[in-house]
Write a structure and sequence with these properties.
The complex is a heterodimer of chains A (291) and B (636).
Chain A lengths: L2 H34 L9 H11 L3 E2 L2 H23 L3 H19 L5 H32 L4 H4 L6 H4 L1 H14 L27 H26 L6 H22 L5 H26 L1
Helix pairs in contact in A: 1-3, 1-9, 1-10, 2-9, 3-4, 3-9, 4-5, 5-8, 5-11, 8-9, 8-11, 9-10
Chain B lengths: L1 H18 L4 H29 L3 E4 L3 H24 L4 H19 L9 E5 L1 H31 L7 H20 L3 H19 L5 H30 L6 H6 L7 H14 L7 H5 L5 H10 L2 H15 L3 H22 L4 H22 L2 H32 L10 H4 L1 H15 L4 H15 L3 H26 L13 H37 L9 H27 L3 E2 L14 E3 L5 E3 L13 H27 L1
Antiparallel strand pairs in B: 1-2, 4-5
Helix pairs in contact in B: 1-2, 1-6, 2-5, 3-4, 3-7, 4-8, 5-6, 5-12, 5-16, 5-21, 6-7, 7-8, 8-10, 10-13, 10-23, 12-16, 13-15, 13-16, 14-15, 14-20, 14-23, 15-16, 15-20, 16-18, 16-19, 16-21, 18-20, 18-21, 19-20
The chains are: A mainly alpha (291), B mainly alpha (636).
Chain lengths: 291, 636
């Protein structure tokens, strides 16, 4: 099997399987959360039922343009994920991811709704908070493996995490923001009785909301892919290990979600920047001078 | 040769004609005709040059020209002194007299070593890039200015109409820029350098208000300070190193002493490109009418600064001074982008973003390896077009709405759809994938990691996040759907001509970028470094970028077809049940109707503009002093 076929298979597998995996993960998330709270919780397949139902619901909006933005958001998330699993340049992958999220922010600030637009501003604050660490993670990979190309990163004999544990911790920290978990579910919230209703998603209904859910499934799988990238090396055993690490990370995120109260956005911003700065600098400097 | 002479001299001729033209229609014709001539000459020259593919130098008998230049310099000094006395400013007069005194001593009295025949003018691909930017962007701004200034004086009857002077200065500026980029002789570059300083000073002070006077003198003394550095660099390199041209200076390579003039020239470059601690002159330059801001920020002035820094890059590379220059650039990139977040005035945001982007270019020049210079030049190109577009659009918006505050641009897409769209193109060009800024940032990050500069990497990582923030919030503001009808757009045809051309160039640049990278930038590196350089963007990288570009075109098209066929029920927005029904206002607690306004975030409670500005200026000043003391002291 030549390299191009392998890439093609990976990309197709991502496009086809990611929503199922992502949806299943979301179901598992709800189940575990329910158990942590002493409830029975819905079926693991509940997210799929939800999305199916949403797709049949009436879509309310002030204009079709908003739908187009949401469509672009989904398309670019899939594009980002495809680039990632095709094994291209990780820095470029992160740049495209940013562009994708931009469409989501535009969709939310399309209507003149106060809750939605406030949510959009908060989403921007979230991007401000996590973006430095995302770029530093790409730099970390480059420092550790000498390349930005994902296909070459996974061919190293030693896992990247050995060289960049600090950056790994920092990345997991900002993953809480990316996964929209408490304490950093600033731009939206799980419950529609917060001070800004459902924030960035307030004006999304029916099909548009379904698109958002599916985009999140894709995005989450891609982000867990980045987590796996820290672990995967040229040995076969690194793949099951990476999957295990992904599960542990996701479990930790759920645990944090259920044990921490939502904080103000300034706390998020300053803590994320502080952690990115300290862990990023220390880790990069150590790499620079020791290896 | 004829073309170069024409490009340098013709703008001055046009300026002289314009300065004597009081009639609107004649002025219009002269501006259009000269712009077309300049663009045509620049394009012809560039094409011919690129086909022949060699860097050319011109040797000239220059006794006569040198004398004329000296007279010109004396004239500038007299002008500065007279104006300084009239407005009771001491510093500019002192700096100017000091410089001219030094230059006169050097030219007339000092024993110059015989350096033999020199090439006074030369042209390589970097010159071509700059030449095209100045010719196309610069003259289009002049075309735009014709319509803009007319409106401007209708709005602002309190200012004296000095349009002949204004247009004269615009063209003087262009002539000086051409002179600066084609010159090889350091004294010549210095002469044109001084002209740009003085003409920017005159343009900033156009309205003669108190604020304008204060700001233009600030711009003047800061640039004269840089000029003083330039002047000392010339004298030192000629008397001690026996070098009188820029090319020689850059190609000397060994010899510790060469770093002294390089540091001094870099200092001049930093002042002109408004790096911290000298950024305040560019911020103050906003008081001038928009076309002059556009010119200062995009095609001329600040680009002269980074042009010089990029020229010096090969010598600065790997030196202590280079690292420090890169640090100043990185600091400027980050700090200015944080400051841009706090601004709601459209032109202020643009000003800070200019400073920020120039910081990135300066950092590229400071690191000075092949990849960063490549990225730096690419940034120069993209920044010139997108920033010029943005300034002109904001100017047009101000003429139509009476405000350039971003908060007043809420829902601009409904009221002025065409202006909003070009504004969005400009903004997207500044930071979105896959436009040029991003490609450059990517190349820069790679090079900085390779150069092992962690501090710079951190500046870029954090600065990218802040850049993203202030552009996106502006974009959201413009695109929000606030009910409203299209309003009368007062933008005149010539303004549209320039804005449209810029928007087209912006989009076209994204598509032809691989061609530029391959045929212009890659050979340019060979010329600058004298060795074959591996392609900065590998074929596979290029492939991804094109894929992204295609995606950005294809996805919305497919999306549009999809969205047309889905069922969307028109409905009102959710306002907790108190939407009055028009999505514009809500019912307040006294049962009255209040208009809804959601403001952007400016972080003013977290970031105090003045305090941060001061802090950064202190830090950057300290760095400059350190470069000076250790760099020059170490070399001696």
């Amino acid at each position: 099997m030549d390299i191009h076929t392998a890439v093609l298979i990976r990309v197709i597998a991502f496009i086809v399987l990611a929503p199922f995996l992502g949806g299943f993960l979301a179901g598992l998330d709800r189940k575990i959360t329910a158990r942590m709270q002493g409830r029975k919780g819905p079926s693991v397949l509940q997210p799929f039922y939800d999305v199916a139902k949403l797709l049949n619901k009436e879509t309310l909006s002030i204009g079709r343009m908003q739908y187009l933005y949401m469509f672009c958001f989904l398309a670019f998330i899939i594009f980002t994920g495809s680039c990632f699993f095709a094994g291209l340049d990780i820095l470029l992958v992160f740049f495209v991811l940013t562009t994708a999220v931009m469409f989501f922010v535009l969709a939310a600030s399309f209507p003149n709704s106060p809750f939605s637009r406030m949510g959009a501003m908060r989403e921007l604050a979230q991007m401000l908070a996590y973006e430095p660490m995302v770029i530093l993670a790409a730099i970390g990979f480059y420092q550790a493996t000498g390349t930005f190309v994902i296909n070459d990163i996974v061919k190293q004999d030693v896992s990247a995490i050995v060289y960049i544990p600090g950056i790994f911790i920092g990345f997991v920290y900002i993953l809480t923001i990316k996964f929209r978990k408490s304490p950093f579910d600033i731009s939206t919230s799980h419950h529609a009785h917060q001070e800004m209703v459902k924030g960035i998603t307030t004006e999304l209904s029916g099909g548009m909301f379904a698109i958002l859910e599916i985009s999140h499934w894709y995005e989450n799988i891609m982000l867990l892919g980045v987590v796996a990238l820290f672990v995967i090396n040229s040995h076969w055993w690194s793949i099951p290990l990476a999957v295990l690490v992904c599960f542990i990370v996701y479990f930790i995120e759920i645990l944090i979600d259920n044990t921490c109260a939502r904080v103000k956005w300034k706390v998020m911003l300053s803590s994320a920047w502080t952690i990115s700065f300290i862990l990023g600098t220390v880790n990069l400097l150590i790499l620079q001078y020791l290896f | 040769m004829e073309f170069v002479g024409f490009l340098i001299l013709f703008p001055f001729v046009a300026a002289a004609i314009l300065a004597c033209t009081k009639n609107d229609n004649i002025r219009k014709v002269v501006v259009y005709a000269s712009s077309i001539l300049i663009i045509a000459a620049a394009v012809c020259f560039s094409v011919m040059h690129l086909i022949s593919g060699e860097s050319v130098a011109y040797l000239e008998e220059t006794e006569m020209i040198d004398r004329i230049m000296m007279c010109g310099e004396l004239f500038l000094t007299v002008l500065i002194v007279v104006l300084s006395v009239r407005y009771k400013k001491v510093l500019p007069a002192v700096l100017s007299l000091l410089q001219t005194g030094l230059m006169l001593w050097f030219e007339l009295i000092a024993k110059k070593p015989e350096t033999g025949a020199q090439m006074h003018l030369f042209c390589d691909r970097l010159t071509i890039v700059m030449c095209l930017i100045v010719a196309v962007v610069g003259t289009l701004i002049c075309v735009y200015a014709v319509g803009y200034l007319k409106d401007y004086h209708n709005h602002h009857t309190e200012y004296k109409d000095r349009r002949p002077f204004f247009f004269g200065m615009l063209f003087v500026f262009l002539g000086a820029m051409f002179g600066l980029i084609f010159s090889n002789n350091l004294v010549w570059i210095y002469f044109f350098w001084e002209i740009t300083s003085v003409s920017s000073f005159l343009l900033i002070g156009y309205t003669k208000t108190e604020e304008a006077i204060t700001n233009c003198f600030r711009a003047l003394w800061m640039n004269l300070l840089g000029g003083l550095g330039f002047c000392i660099a010339i004298i030192y390199s000629e008397l001690v190193l026996e070098i009188s041209t820029l090319k020689e200076l850059v190609s000397v390579g060994d010899g510790q002493l060469v770093i002294i003039p390089v540091i001094l020239l870099a200092f001049a470059g930093l002042t002109k490109s408004a790096q911290f601690p000298f950024s305040r002159w560019l911020l103050g330059a906003m008081v001038a009418p928009t076309p002059s801001s556009a010119l200062l920020h995009s095609a001329t002035m600040v680009k002269a600064g980074v042009y010089l820094l990029l020229r010096l890059a090969p010598v600065m590379s790997g030196t202590y001074a280079g690292t420090m220059v890169a640090l100043i650039g990185g600091l400027t990139f980050f700090a200015a982008s944080v400051l841009a977040i706090t601004q709601s005035d459209g032109k202020s945001v643009l000003a800070y973003s200019t400073i920020s982007n120039l910081g990135l270019i300066t950092a590229c020049a400071g690191v000075g390896v092949e990849q960063t210079v490549w990225a730096g030049v690419l940034l120069v190109i993209f920044h010139a077009v997108s920033k010029s577009l943005l300034f002109q659009t904001v100017g047009a918006i101000e003429n139509s709405t009476g405000s350039r505050d971003i908060e007043d641009m809420t829902g601009l897409i409904r009221r002025f759809p065409a202006l909003a769209i070009v504004l969005c193109i400009g903004i997207a060009g500044m930071f979105l994938a896959p436009f040029g800024m991003l490609i450059s940032k990517w190349a820069v990050l790679k090079a900085f990691v390779d150069a092992g500069n962690v501090v710079l990497v951190l500046f870029i990582a954090f600065g990218s996040a802040t850049t993203l923030f202030y552009w996106t919030k502006w974009l959201c503001k413009v695109l929000v759907q606030v009910p409203g009808e299209p309003e009368r757009n007062k933008t005149s045809a010539n303004q549209w001509c320039s804005i449209g051309a810029h928007a087209f160039m912006m989009i076209a640049l994204c598509f032809v970028f691989p061609v530029i990278a391959y045929y212009l930038l890659q050979p340019m590196l060979y010329e600058l470094y004298g060795s074959v350089v591996a392609p900065v963007l590998s074929a596979s990288d290029m492939y991804i970028l094109l894929l992204m570009l295609v995606a950005l075109v294809v996805v919305p098209v497919i999306g549009n077809m999809f969205v047309k066929n889905v069922d969307v029920t028109q409905s009102n927005e959710y306002m907790a049940g108190i939407n009055t029904g028009d999505n514009k206002s809500f019912v307040d607690s006294f049962d009255g109707v209040k208009t809804l306004n959601v403001a952007n975030w400016y972080f003013t409670d977290m970031v105090n503009e003045q305090k941060l500005l001061k802090a950064v200026i202190y830090i950057a000043s300290a760095v400059i002093i350190i470069i000076g003391v250790i760099g020059i002291g170490g070399a001696l």
